[in-house]
Design goal:
Elements (H helix, E strand, L loop, with lengths): L2 H10 L5 E2 L10 E2 L7 H5 L14 H4 L4 H4 L9 E5 L5 E3 L19 E4 L6 H11 L7 E6 L2 E2 L2 E2 L2 H7 L3 E3 L34 H10 L8 H21 L5 H9 L17 H4 L4 H14 L10 H9 L2 E5 L9 H20 L6 E5 L8 H12 L6 E7 L10 H8 L2 E4 L5 H11 L5 H6 L5 E6 L5 E5 L3 H6 L4 H4 L3
Parallel strand pairs: 5-12, 5-13, 6-10, 6-11, 9-10, 11-12
Antiparallel strand pairs: 1-2, 3-4, 3-15, 7-8, 13-14, 14-15
Helix pairs in contact: 7-14, 8-9, 9-11, 13-14, 14-15
Length: about 475
């Protein structure tokens, strides 16, 4: 080695390859010594990590993010937002994920959203489960109870999309939906549907409407007379070529005829005086609902605009914001719409058409006997291609034996937003068996972020992402600001 080579070797830590003695006939191998670490290179940061990144491709860098490489993201359906841990796009689609294999698969289309007011709950309903559902050619039906600037919150969206807003008002100036409509009768439009796919019928719905204001449960005699009166009223209306209304039923319960008892057995027509008073109390209750509390809402034939809304546009807006919060009006109208819609969808399901029903103020319909009917429809919605999206707040106030609690527990997809009260956060964790410490996370969630439980997947944090147009549609502060 000459002098120049020796200087380079000493300066840069280069060494000559050392030959290794081997047995005769064996292959010669070489071995390089590890270079020594130099102090003067340490002073200049030679051995430190690069302060700037290295150019690479998306495919090459994918392996560096273990959170992404270990996940199995959904690749089809409607995008909802970003996973806060992996920053990947999250697809949440109750129809696309129904029945698929893996943790992301679900077994029902019930979606529940639980969050305080002002935390982005309404924005999620309007975008992910209303407007975006029309992209894959689905129909979104909205039960809009929230009032904004003298109208329902979804009115502006309906106008921009060219859809009509069907307004319900007490007194008869708005639309009407008839619980006696043949579409939801036991012998109505769904008679050709497959067994097991028929939602609750007319008798169960009207019994629930009567039961709510009663201070006691209906008796078996009252149920028997109600069924007999329904058969009689429906038969007479069909013979006259008209649609029966609940006023006809109330009158028949107060004034029964001997032939009404023929379905009860051969002896009952002769015992007319014995059973003719069985239906007086429920008849008076139904008459009061028709003439006062529900006047103009359910006491007339179904309005043409209700049927046209379902048949002419994928965005169906039922504006219930003018109905009084106290009293039975809101929950009865919501329950009638739900049952009427579910029965009409039995025929539509044969064409494989999918429908989403959004109920933001779901606590209205998730209580009492009408809540039981709503829950029953939700359980049978798979046969009709119907997905119900129900939004709640203050879960700690929900009775564990109520239909609302059952709806929360049976949901396949759950969004949990910020819970300002500690008892609400604890109630959510108890319902969905979240791990210890989740209560603190729920109480600190910012607006627009949700803890999502979907199928058998572990819960994850989601940031709901909106387009600029969706941001305008979900702005509900115009009344407080005093301008649009």
């Amino acid at each position: 080695m000459n002098a120049t080579a020796r200087r380079l070797t000493a300066r840069f830590g280069l060494h000559r390859r050392a030959a290794v003695r081997v047995r005769p006939g064996a292959e010669r191998v070489s071995r390089r010594r590890m270079p020594r670490r130099r102090r003067w290179l340490d002073r200049f940061g030679w051995y430190e990590a690069r302060p700037s990144g290295q150019w690479t491709t998306t495919r090459q860098a994918e392996a560096l993010n273990t959170a992404v490489t270990r996940s199995t993201p959904q690749l089809f359906g409607i995008p909802c937002g970003l996973n806060q841990i992996s920053k990947e796009v999250v697809v949440i689609d109750q129809f696309a994920q129904y029945g698929i294999a893996g943790d992301a698969g679900i077994t029902a289309g019930l979606v529940v959203i639980i969050a305080d007011m002002g935390t982005g709950k309404s924005s999620l309903c309007k975008t992910q489960f209303a407007v975006r559902q029309m992209i894959p050619y689905r129909q979104a039906v909205i039960l809009d109870k929230k009032r904004q600037s003298g109208r329902g919150e979804y009115t502006q969206i309906a106008r921009d999309l060219g859809a009509a807003s069907v307004v319900f008002e007490v007194g008869g100036s708005g639309a009407c939906i008839n619980p006696m409509d043949p579409a939801i009768s036991a012998s109505g439009e769904h008679t050709n549907a497959e067994p097991g796919a028929v939602p609750p019928g007319q008798e169960a719905l009207i019994a629930a409407i009567i039961q709510d204001p009663l201070p006691r449960p209906m008796t078996p005699r009252e149920y028997a007379l109600l069924g007999a009166a329904l058969d009689a009223v429906n038969g007479e209306a069909a013979a006259d070529g008209r649609e029966p209304v609940i006023g006809d039923l109330a009158h028949r319960l107060l004034n029964p005829r001997p032939e009404d008892a023929e379905g009860l057995g051969p002896d009952w027509p002769a015992r007319f005086e014995e059973w003719r008073t069985w239906g007086h109390e429920i008849g008076i209750t139904l008459q009061r609902l028709a003439e006062r509390d529900l006047k103009g809402l359910v006491d007339r034939p179904t309005s043409p605009e209700v049927r046209e809304a379902l048949e002419t546009h994928p965005f169906v807006h039922f504006d219930l914001s003018a109905l009084p919060t106290s009293g039975p009006a809101v929950r009865v109208v919501m329950s009638v719409i739900n049952t009427w819609l579910a029965n009409r969808l039995v025929l539509r399901s044969k064409q494989f058409r999918q429908t989403v029903l959004v109920v933001e103020e779901a606590w209205h319909v998730a209580q009492g006997s009408t809540g039981e009917v709503f829950l029953s429809s939700a359980k049978q919605s798979r046969g009709t291609g119907l997905s119900i999206v129900a939004a709640f707040h203050h879960p700690a106030d929900v009775d564990p034996v109520s239909p609302a609690y059952s709806l929360m527990r049976e949901a396949s997809i759950v969004f949990v937003g910020r819970q300002s009260r500690a008892d609400d956060a604890k109630a959510v964790c108890d319902i969905y068996h979240f791990p210890p410490g989740t209560e603190d996370t729920l109480m600190r969630l910012p607006k627009g972020r949700f803890l999502v439980k979907m199928g058998s997947m572990d819960p994850f944090l989601l940031e709901h992402v909106r387009s600029p147009q969706e941001v305008l549609w979900t702005d509900t502060d115009a009344a407080m600001r005093g301008h649009q």
